[in-house]
Amino acid sequence: QPSVAIVGRQNVGKSTLLNRLTGRRQAITEDLPGTTRDRLYIPMNHAGRDFELVDTGGMEPLPQDTIARSVNDQVRSAMKAASVVVFLVDAKAGLTPQDHEIADEVRKSGKPVVLAVNKADNARLSLHAAEFHSLGFGEPMPVSAFHGRGVEDLLDRVVELLPEPEAVAKAAPGLRIAIAGRANVGKSSLLNALVGAERMIVSPIPGTTRDSIDTPIDTASGSVVLIDTAGIRRRGKIERGVEEYSVIRSLNAIDRADIVLIVLDASEPATAQDTHIAGYARDQGRGLILVVNKTDLLENVDMTEYDRNMAARFKFIPYAERLYVSARTGDGVDRVIPTSFEIQSERAKRIPTPDLNSLVRQALARHAPPSAGGKLLKVLYATQVGVCPPEIVFFVNDPKLVHFSFERFLENRLREVFGFAGTPIKFTFKSRG
Ligand code: GDP
Predict the structure, then answer these.
(1) What is the homologous superfamily of the domain 175-347 according to CATH?
(2) pLDDT tens string 301-321
(3) Which has fewest Cβ within 10 Å: 3, 27, 75, 286?
(4) How confident is the model at residue 164, as a pLDDT?
(5) ipTM topping 0.90
(6) Which atom of ligand 1 has the smallest separation from the CA of 297?
(7) Peptide bond between residue 389 and the one before it cis (omega within 30 degrees of 0)
(8) Site residues for ligand 1, CB cut-off 6 Å
């Protein structure tokens, strides 16, 4: 897994840039005052390439160090493992002697470098970027971490410089099932229970991400690769950090999966972290199973009501399957793999265009389509353009007339007739007047 280090003197905006680059995954870079933080690796995917951003945010200089020394130490250690270095400077402050010192270190590293000029918030400041040419790292890229300007271009450039994925570790064939969830819900235990029940074909192989493990297994339903996020609890010292790191790892596993097991702890109420993970899996179009683990801890619980509450908590994914298991006793675990395959076949389903259109006609006859300013929404034609997840395009007279509630109505009708259990469906409305 190639890594990318962002270096630069203090106050050039490294943390802001990091937060901007990592987007939804920014929680991990939150400051943990008073702790000596490990260096963190933030899994990223851009333009189809996986890499890690090295977060050296915790490596603040010690007060007794001279600034020059501590900055240089920081820069050196961050760069050592990196495949690409992003050297960040500050358009507002201009070129400083410290920038020159860091430039020397960057040059010595021999790594490919992207020179980014931050705080180029407007055209005038962007002009200043030219001054940094003299550092000798080619064309400086103006960015504004704060406003998000130039950040996509920066990522494009970084990805170009990443080493070729040398004979990319051949991905094992099979249905890819991610075991996601926050720390201590029982992900590792579930993995063991799943593997224990099946025949492992080969020993686990390192996944494409640090600490992630792909476990290929042969099951009665077919070949499976379990993608899990082991190795999280090593960082047990900083509780908060662990929790967030666990979530980030989950997001990375989700990126590489067909089906996501969102593992929950039956003995605790679902948290915002749980719904965050589920929402991410939905947005990525993965098949969804809520796996409620540790059911052996539930005593005298009305499961019907429990399940109703669970559905309410996850009402943003009403189509997700819900399975109740105990990794400890093995209860219910045998449903996980077959259900995953069932969902995968739903994800891969293609509805013939005539069937889809007759459903849409019927639906519109039952439910007056929305209108605005005397203009009525007309659905001219619908067609499924993709699978895994299913993607349906509706050609309409005016996409602006489509409201969320109408979209939901269509989705419900579609699911009543065609199923699509366990999978998100992607809807697109296109204008054809
Ligand atoms: P992970 O961090 O999500 O991988 O969680 P682990 O698999 O390490 O489990 C966390 C804790 O929950 C451990 O102490 C497990 O023994 C316990 N645990 C896991 N599954 C179950 C279960 O089904 N029932 C009970 N009672 N405890 C469980």
Answers:
(1) P-loop containing nucleotide triphosphate hydrolases (3.40.50.300)
(2) 999 999 999 999 999 999 999
(3) 27
(4) 74
(5) yes
(6) 26
(7) yes
(8) 181, 183-189, 233, 293-294, 296-297, 326-328
